[in-house]
Amino acid sequence: MKIKSITLAAVLGALVMFGSVGAAQASAADHFNDDACARKIYNDQRALNRAIERHGLYSRQAEHARWDLMKARSACDAARYR
Prior knowledge:
Elements: H1 2-19, H2 28-55, H3 60-80
């Protein structure tokens, strides 16, 4: 009888110790949004670099590309912290 109660206590202790710990994981939708945001920011950064190379650092095209990049970063930050 004593062995059964020791075994039961060990099993219940293991369940309490390891059973309640779950891995924190983002959903598939969160991964998609993160990937989409990263891709959008990457593309907008490339567009800014291209505009700077072709038209100059403070050109109208570069300012427009900077504005697009800023909007993409803001939208992604807002989506991340919802």
